[in-house]
Amino acid sequence: MNTVLPAREEEMEKAALLILDDEKEVLNALNRVLRKHFQLYLFSDANEAIGFYQDNPNIPLILTDMRMPIMDGATFLGKIIDINPQCKRFLLTGHADINLTVTAVNEGRISHYFSKPWDNEELICELKSAYELYLNERKTKQLLKINLAKNAELSLINSSLELATNKSQKKLQLVSAREANSFVRLKKTFSTFIDIYAETICLHTQDITRHNFRVAAHARLIAESQSCDKLTTFQIYIAGLLYETGKLAIEQNLLKKPIDVMSQHEKNLYSGFYQKSFELLKKVDELSFVAEIIKHIPENYNGSTAPEHLTADEIPLGSRIIAIVSMYDNLVNGRQSQIKTSTVLAKHRIKELAKTMFDPRLLDCYLTILDEHPNSSEGQVDYLLNSEDLRVGMVLTRDIVNTDKNPMLTKGTLIDQHHIDKLLEIEKGQGESFLIYAR
């Protein structure tokens, strides 16, 4: 039996879902449960389903029974992967098939499995979540294509840009108005390239807090406090924006896990993103120094870690700065451990790592910045705060929400003493601890 349900006009925005099961009663039951939420294509014959999918390879969701006469569900999904490896794949399985199902999970052939009898709400929720993940991954790939195009344009413009050295003044000068225009185009294209890359990283890591933008801004503050020249400060800022580039090569499921709960194997996969970032960015001549900064972020101040066991001032300044800032932000933001660390404890934790992991001079500088909350000469900077860190006159850069995701105060609110007192009162009475984004 082969049933393809035509999509009505109001269904065109629904996610497409192909379902394979040799039992008509199961197909009918799934149709009743899922037709309001998805555009369904129902099949009882595996070969017909595969033939249909070859003609329609962009269907994002596949759901199949495990035990069927022509081929089992895992084998079927293996053939689907050959057509479209990006689709999200699910199995319906009975207790007797659980060992085969676990094998299919470990081999990456399925995204999730549902035991029979399934829970309708769980089924709908998992399928919808998978579709959102599919859309995010597609957006990431589209932005990467744009990145590559911008990279090519960058190289083309750069190759046409001629610079002459004035020996008497020892300065680089543009040799004509045509080259001057090319330089303007180069600078604009470069900025666009960086912005797109940074946004791509946020999208792939599913980070709505814009961690890399905050790391970049804080790193720039430290660089300014060290009286770095403008070029060095700019390079450190760009390194902060792009240091997670290598995470584009890591599956999003792993990126969702706090670092402290990863297995050793997962930590090894995860920690390789610094080297991957270096390899990706060094291909752009204008980012070669930035790539070097990122490569050495994992180096401990005492020289005890890879990649080159550099020590103290041998480690690039930008690497030492970003190591401190990213660790602090990950702690407070809940990316380091399952429970968000308070700002007080996070400061204490990074202070304990002075002289071993972090440069003590730069660490003291950053702790001063976290106490004083200054803005950069290049623009405003937001901070991760707890309620007791708030000061009158600060402005929220994100909504403050409670555990039920209900907004307490909205983005743009100018903080006064009443707001601070009320938040502290709620925290004390209800045991909640708010993570606040403000400048």
Tell me the series of helices and strands, N- to C-terminal.
EEHEHEHEHEHEEHHHHHHHHHHEEEHE
Number of continuous helical runs: 16
Largest sheet: 6 strands, mixed
Termini separation comes to: 62 Å
> How many domains, in number, for the residues?
3
What is the C-level CATH assignment of the largest domain? Mainly Alpha
Query: CATH superfamily membership of the largest domain, which one?
Result: Hypothetical protein af1432
Give, in spatial order, the strands making up the sheet with the most strands. Answer: 1-3-2-4-5-6
- Please compute the radius of gyration using only Cα atoms: 26 Å
CATH topology of the largest domain: Hypothetical protein af1432
Structural class: alpha/beta
General shape: globular
For the secondary structure, the number of strands is 12
Q: Tell me the fraction of residues in β-strands, as a range.
A: 5-15%
